[in-house]
Amino acid sequence: MSPAALQARAGHSSYATTQIYIALAGVEFREETAKLSGRLWGGPVERAGRNTAAQA
Questions:
Q1: N or C, where is the chain less crowded by C-beta within 10 Å?
Q2: For 18-32, how does the pLDDT look when each residue is reduced to its tens digit (9 = 90+)?
């Protein structure tokens, strides 16, 4: 997904805000991000302690 599309989908008026969330998503809050993504975009919700993307 392009950064502009992600910004629009997240509803951020500033790309700087989107960049903050992008930076946080892959570092400290990977599990929480997966859960939230599942709720927001209708994807699978992963269980705590498992990251299927890292296993692929």
A1: C
A2: 888 888 776 656 677
